[in-house]
Structure formats: structure tokens, C-alpha cells
């Protein structure tokens, strides 16, 4: 290689950082870095099960979804007051901005906090204030999605929706997360129908560890506008054809999938095949503090493992806006911005 030429790796990374992108699958509690866990534990006089930041980070070695969730819920225990939720959300937004993220649709898990006696208003107000400040200071637009924990009952989800109603102006939609296997979307049909009637948009995790049938249930019973993960759709050819035909977005999280052993190696990931079959695939970071990377790290990991072209990376960024809950004019404006950026950088 000519030594005056930059190697292609750094240039792809800087191309990706400059590419306008939306992030649509991000659990805000999954952005809590070990350093902040320790700082908040000290602030609230909480004793942690780990001696140091490094020891906690070393424990992030998962073999499936449940082994991750156990640590994720334990980590969230240090979030006690509104300022903690504000600090966590602000830190994520600053990190996202450095990755060229211009719009976020983020999840929070109210039951993880209300079960510990933290008021839902403390949670929502802290997160929302950081989102509003992030919009003003960093230019990142946002939507907030309340997730029901699917290992708990539908009655508990109904009670959580009731608690959230006084804050409905800050919550754009509802979602469904936590342990998937054995907790099908059908378990939450009534609470999703009520959320629909109340005007909330809807998404659900499906087809991460659970079967392709759960994706079909989420679409038909919960009336979701996109599927979180959804990678197991390729086990059902009819479903695959439907997702392509209807352009149902999938919010795919590559580093999460390899960390939680949905795929043993990134080279086995089906993201490129799904994209080439015409599905509206997007790339997201899920729980970046636990899975070893934020949004650009996820783009880079699949680009390297699956040898994605520049055109495919540009398509993924456009898909992120198409799949978002932005209004039609804003979507178009960002898709045009992506096209302009691609044209400008290919000429350089
Ligand atoms: N799957 C299910 N529940 C979750 C996840 C996930 O990837 N992240 C946080 N809660
Ligand atoms: Zn998730």
C-alpha cells in the first residue's frame, strides 16, 4: 500500500461517523457504563457485588439472553433519583452524537424501577429532561418508548400503563422486552390493544431467541410497526416474503447477537442476506455498555465480517429513517441528507 494513503479501515470508520443515522433499538439502562455504576453506587452508598470497574466489565461474558438480563437488572439498581436517569441519558446522547446519530427512539424499562419503589415520574422526568436538553444542545431529535417486561404478567403491564398515563405526552410508544422464550406476544394482546386505542405507537422484541412465530404474532396480534431483532424470520420463508413485501422494519443489533450467542460469529449473521432480500433492515446497538460497542462499532463489525459495500451502508442509514416514527417530511429530509453525504464523500 502507498504509505501516504490512509488505510481503508479508518476511512470507513470516519465515513460511518459522518453518515447521518437514526438509532431505534437502544435500552437506556443498557448504556450504563461500569464507571457510572460505580459512581452512582458511591453516591447512594450501595454495595456492589464486584470489587472494581474492571471486575464488573470482566463479568460481561454472556452465553444467552438470560445471563445478560441478570446483570443488566442488577446494574440498574444504582439508579435512584431523577438526576441519575438524567446523567445516564445525557452520557448516551453525547456518545451517540460522536457517532453521527441525529435521531433516537429509546426504550426504558419502568418496571425495573417501580418494583424497587422508584416513582415512574422520577424515571420519565430524568430521561425526558436529558432528551430535551440533547435536542437543544446536540440537535438530536427523540422519541421515548415504554417497554413492558414480558417475564412479568399482563396485569403488571396494564398497571404500568396506568402509571404512565399522566406522562403520556412524553411517551411515544410501547414495546416488549426481557426473557423471550415462553413469553409470546399473545400474552400481551389486551394491553397492546389498549395502548393502541390510547394513541401509542407499538413495537416488540421478537425472533431474537424466540421462534419466527413470535414475529407473526407481534405483527398480527400486537399490530406493531416494526420488529426489534427479528433475525429468526429466516426460519419461515412465507414470513420472510411478507416482511420484504410490507417493508416491515427490523431493528437488528449485531454485537448484541454475537455477545448473546444468537450467532457464534459475526460471519454467520444473516443481516446482509436480509438486506439483499429487500427487507428494511436497520443497525442498532441495543445495550452498548454491555455488548462492547456503540452504533458505529456495530456498523463496522458487520461491514468487516460480511463485507458490506458502501451502497449497503448508505441503504442501512436510509432504512433507519424510513423505519423511524419521524413525520414524512423529516424522514425525507434525512434521507436526502444521507444521499447528499454519500455523493459528496464518493467524489472526495
Ligand atoms: N432482548 C430482550 N430484552 C432486553 C434486551 C434484549 O436484547 N436488552 C434489554 N432488555
Ligand atoms: Zn433490545
Features:
348 residues; alpha/beta; TIM Barrel; 8-stranded parallel beta sheet; globular; disordered N terminus; binds zinc ion
Reported by name, the CATH topology is: TIM Barrel
Bound molecules: hypoxanthine, zinc ion
Give the low-confidence spans: 1-6
Note the main sheet: 8 strands, parallel
Overall structural class, as computed from helix and strand content, comes to alpha/beta
Mean pLDDT: 96
How many beta-strand elements? 8
Output the CATH homologous superfamily.
Metal-dependent hydrolases
Order of strands across the main sheet: 1-2-3-4-5-6-7-8
* Text of the CATH class: Alpha Beta
End-to-end CA span: 19 Å
Radius of gyration: 19 Å
Residues in helix, %? 40-55%
Write down the overall geometry: globular
- The appropriate CATH architecture is Alpha-Beta Barrel
Structural description of this entry:
- The chain is of the alpha/beta class.
- It has one domain: Metal-dependent hydrolases (TIM Barrel, Alpha-Beta Barrel), CATH 3.20.20.140.
- It is 51% helix and 12% strand.
- The protein is built from 17 helices and eight strands.
- Strands 1-2-3-4-5-6-7-8 form an eight-stranded parallel beta sheet.
- Strand 3 (141-149), helix 8 and strand 4 form a beta-alpha-beta unit.
- Helix 16 packs antiparallel against helix 17.
- It is globular, with a radius of gyration of 19 Å.
- Zinc ion is lined by residues 25, 27, 177, 205, 228, 286.
Amino acid at each position: 500500500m502507498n504509505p501516504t494513503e490512509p488505510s481503508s479501515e479508518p476511512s470507513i470508520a470516519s465515513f460511518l461517523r459522518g453518515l447521518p443515522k437514526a438509532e431505534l433499538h437502544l435500552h437506556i439502562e443498557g448504556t450504563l457504563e461500569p464507571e457510572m455504576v460505580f459512581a452512582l453506587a458511591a453516591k447512594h452508598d450501595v454495595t456492589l457485588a464486584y470489587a472494581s470497574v474492571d471486575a464488573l466489565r470482566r463479568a460481561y461474558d454472556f452465553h444467552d439472553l438470560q445471563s445478560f438480563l441478570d446483570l443488566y437488572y442488577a446494574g440498574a439498581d444504582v439508579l435512584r433519583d431523577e438526576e441519575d436517569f438524567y446523567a445516564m441519558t445525557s452520557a448516551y446522547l453525547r456518545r451517540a452524537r460522536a457517532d453521527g446519530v441525529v435521531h433516537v427512539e429509546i426504550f426504558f424499562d419502568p418496571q425495573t424501577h417501580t418494583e424497587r419503589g422508584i416513582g415512574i415520574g422520577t424515571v420519565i422526568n430524568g430521561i425526558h429532561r436529558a432528551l430535551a436538553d440533547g435536542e437543544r444542545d446536540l440537535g438530536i431529535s427523540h422519541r421515548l418508548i415504554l417497554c413492558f417486561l414480558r417475564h412479568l404478567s399482563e396485569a403488571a403491564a396494564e398497571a404500568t400503563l396506568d402509571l404512565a398515563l399522566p406522562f403520556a405526552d412524553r411517551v411515544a410508544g410501547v414495546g416488549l422486552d426481557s426473557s423471550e422464550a415462553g413469553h409470546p406476544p399473545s400474552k400481551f394482546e389486551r394491553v397492546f390493544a389498549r395502548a393502541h386505542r390510547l394513541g401509542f405507537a407499538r413495537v416488540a422484541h421478537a425472533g431474537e431467541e424466540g421462534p419466527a412465530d413470535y414475529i407473526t404474532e407481534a405483527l398480527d396480534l400486537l399490530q406493531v410497526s416494526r420488529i426489534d431483532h427479528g433475525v429468526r424470520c429466516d426460519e419461515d420463508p412465507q414470513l420472510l416474503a411478507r416482511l420484504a413485501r410490507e417493508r416491515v422494519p427490523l431493528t437488528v443489533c449485531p454485537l448484541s447477537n454475537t455477545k448473546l450467542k444468537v450467532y457464534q460469529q459475526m460471519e454467520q449473521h444473516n443481516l446482509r442476506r436480509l438486506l439483499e432480500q429487500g427487507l428494511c433492515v436497520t443497525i442498532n446497538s441495543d445495550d452498548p455498555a454491555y455488548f462492547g460497542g456503540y452504533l458505529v462499532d456495530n456498523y463496522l463489525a458487520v461491514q468487516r465480517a460480511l463485507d458490506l459495500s458502501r451502497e449497503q451502508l448508505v441503504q442501512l442509514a436510509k432504512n433507519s429513517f424510513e423505519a423511524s416514527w419521524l413525520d414524512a417530511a423529516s424522514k425525507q429530509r434525512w434521507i436526502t441528507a444521507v444521499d447528499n453525504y454519500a455523493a459528496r464523500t464518493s467524489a472526495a
